[in-house]
Amino acid sequence: MPAPHPLLLVDDDAAFRKVYGGLLREAGYEVVEAADRPSARATFEARDFPLVLLDLMLPPDGSVSAGLEGLAALLSARPGTKVIVISGAGDTRHTLEAVRLGAYDFLTKPVDPDVLLVVVQRALARVTLERQVESLRTSLARAGGDTALVGQSPPFLNAVSLAERVAASDLPVLVTGENGTGKELLARTVHLKSRRHGGPFVPINCGALPESLLESALFGHVKGSFTGATKDHRGLFAEADGGTLFLDELGDMTPSLQVKVLRALETGDILPVGADLPVKVDVRLISATHQDLGRMLQEGTFREDLYWRVKGVEIRLPPLRERASDLPLLAKHFLNQCAHLCPDGRARLLSDAAAEALAAHAWPGNLRELRHEMQRATVLAGERREIQPEDLSFTGSERPRASAPGATTLAQKVEALERREIEEALKRCGGNRTHTAEALGLSRQGLLKKLERFGLT
Ligand SMILES: Nc1ncnc2c1ncn2[C@@H]1O[C@H](COP(=O)(O)OP(=O)(O)OP(=O)(O)O)[C@@H](O)[C@H]1O
């Protein structure tokens, strides 16, 4: 069966390439050959090779350590590639080192042809499987079906554990937290873990519609009840019958609508606009708000009776800045979700400097901002495998201001500007002073002096 992708066979021994390349071709594989390290690198960069058969001791220098470095570079450029290292007899130490670096397998010369074919077949089957998993994950994320809750930080795990415990009951749930902290996703999780999971989950954003439209969206209406009501409309309470209704931005609901929602919750009956008779519904309510309902109660803008009716169990989702340890996991999760935006369909990675820039950002828009940022950076990175700080929108917006607060004289302003440039360059270069000096056009010594002067050592 022909392989869907070419194999790269790298060995300086022409006879070896001829025999084993021929064997693999006979078995139906497309084989591309390279005889030294530079041409192997160029060939590898030019095409997508899922599998590389690699001799570690290659011209021009024949050194094993250069071979191992080449292997590490190859795997860091394309971590999904499977590399089978081919070594001379008695070279165990280096082959083990190669496996430690991430080589998939190794073969010792003289290579048994049957073993070679089995190892190659197994490695390619693995590649196919991994690519299928990645593509399934992508289509799931695209279809909006990715409900995985990512995070390991204690405040986030507390919220998830509370959600899981409360899911089995039919109690109302109030999810609070800043915008973009994952309130809707948590509400979906409660629904999916409840006995209602086979029923509908119906979300509505109470802040997105004017009062009259929201009322008819929630309770439905009968034909002719107002201009434009050309047919009966069931309404979302009825749509959610047997399932869960998710009232997002509950704090945005007007006081008169609050009364109607309260009545529906108390009686289990809803009255469509213009109807004479109420309709019975069986709905579990989950609400969410980014507003401080306690304060709204005191101000009289939210009804206390409704508050107690919807509160049931309150789950507070922490803002991203309070769950900093989740940032790398979440960034990776969102990068995986948008792998389909990359020309090669593979998720981009964060460079160390970009990861540091993420860690230094305040994330006022929480997870939604992070997801958007990862999408944008993926697109801007283009063919590049790694995302760099310049692909992030906020590294641009956080450029040095023309004048720092408190700086009055020109010399002070220049000094403040210089300091911020240095701080940013250090961040971009992951704290590496040699690279920072290069990036700023300074000698290393010159940079060290400035670091000392600005107290940045
Ligand atoms: N724990 C998580 N793991 C993975 N993705 C998450 C997580 N929490 C939220 N998300 C994703 O972050 C984005 C924002 O989440 P969501 O819409 O649930 O936030 P929200 O708090 O309801 O926002 P808003 O207050 O604006 O309505 C969504 O794309 C969601 O899938």
TrEMBL record:
The modification 4-aspartylphosphate is found at D55. Coiled coil: none annotated. InterPro entries: AAA+_ATPase (IPR003593), AAA_lid_NorR (IPR058031), CheY-like_superfamily (IPR011006), Homeodomain-like_sf (IPR009057), HTH_Fis (IPR002197), P-loop_NTPase (IPR027417), Sig_transdc_resp-reg_receiver (IPR001789), Sigma_54_int (IPR002078). Residues 6-124 form the Response regulatory domain. SUPFAM superfamilies: CheY-like, Homeodomain-like, P-loop containing nucleoside triphosphate hydrolases. Keywords: ATP-binding, DNA-binding, Nucleotide-binding, Phosphoprotein, Transcription, Transcription regulation. Residues 149-379 form the Sigma-54 factor interaction domain. SMART domains: AAA, REC. PANTHER family: SIGMA FACTOR (PTHR32071:SF122), TRANSCRIPTIONAL REGULATORY PROTEIN (PTHR32071). This is Sigma-54-dependent Fis family transcriptional regulator. It comes from Pyxidicoccus parkwayensis. The lineage of its organism: Bacteria, Pseudomonadati, Myxococcota, Myxococcia, Myxococcales.
